[in-house]
Here is the input.
Amino acid sequence: MKIKIILSIFLYMVALNFSFAETIHVVTTTQDTRSIAEMIGGAKVDVFAIATGYQNPHFVDPKPSYIIKLSNANLFVTLGLDLESGWSPSLLASSRNPKIQKGSDGYVDASVGVSLMQVPSSINRAEGDIHIFGNPHYWLDPLNGKMIARNICIGLEKISPENKSFFEANLKAFNDQIDLRLKSWYSAMAAFKGSKVIAYHNEWCYFENRFGLQIVDFLEPKPGIPPTPSQLVKIIKEVKENHIKVIITSPYFTSSSSDVVSKETGAKTLVLATSVGAFDSIKNYYDLFDYNIKLLTGALNL
Ligand SMILES: [Zn+2]
Here is the structure.
C-alpha cells in the first residue's frame, strides 16, 4: 500500500514536471507580437508583453518585474530596428538569461525579411531622430504581420522542434485569416484611396502604403521631436490647401497640438490604435485593423 502511494506521488510529480517543461515562456516587447505569438504557439505557450497597447513603444520605463519575466523566458521576441532600442537591450542584458540573448535560439527579431520603408542612406541620430534604421512601425501592415508570424514560428520550432507541425498549422491558419480579412479591409478602404491626412508621429507609412492613404505631413517635425509652433503653422497651411479632413494620432500623444490644428482648420483629430490593447475592444492583431479601418472610413466619409 505504502509503495502504491509513493508511486502515485512520484507519477504525479513527473506529470507536474512534464507539464511545466511543456509550457514555453515567451516574452515580447509589445502587445502585437504577443497576440501573434499566442496565435502561433496556442496552448503550448504562455506569453507576456512588456509594453502596454496604449504606451509609446519607443519609450518604456524598465521595471524589475520585466527582468524577472525575461530571466524565466524560453523565447524573446523584439520588433527590432530602433523601436525599443532605448529600453529593451538593457532589460535583456539584466536578465542574464543566455537562452534569449541576441544570436541564441530563443531570440527572435520579428523584422527579419520585412521590406523596410524609409531606410536612410546614413545612420544619423542628429536632431533626435529615432528611426535611424528605417521606419520600425512595420506591424501596421497586416502582410508584415505574416512575416512576424513566420519569424515567431521559426523561433518556436528551434526551441521546441517536437511541436513543429502544430506551430506550422497555426501559422497557416493565421495567414489564411489575414488573407481573408484583408479582402474586407481593402474593400472598406477602396473608396478612400489617395485620401490625404496628417499624422502626429511617422508611424503609419506601412498602413498608408497597404491601404492607399496619403500622409502629407507630421505634427512632429522629426520622429521623436515634439511639435513646434513653426511646424504647426506649416501644418495648418497644408491642411487648408489640401482640404484635409483628418489628423491621425495615437493614445500616447497629447491632443494639444492636434487641437490647435483642428480649431484653425476644422480637421478632425482621430486617435487610432497603434497596438493591440490600445483600447479595450482591441483584443488581438485582427481587431487592430478592424478598429482603425472602421474609425478612419467613418471620419473620411463625413
Ligand atoms: Zn516611431
In short: The beta strands are 24-28, 45-49, 75-78, 107-109, 196-199, 214-218, 246-249, 268-271. The mean pLDDT is 92. The two ends are 78 Å apart (CA to CA).
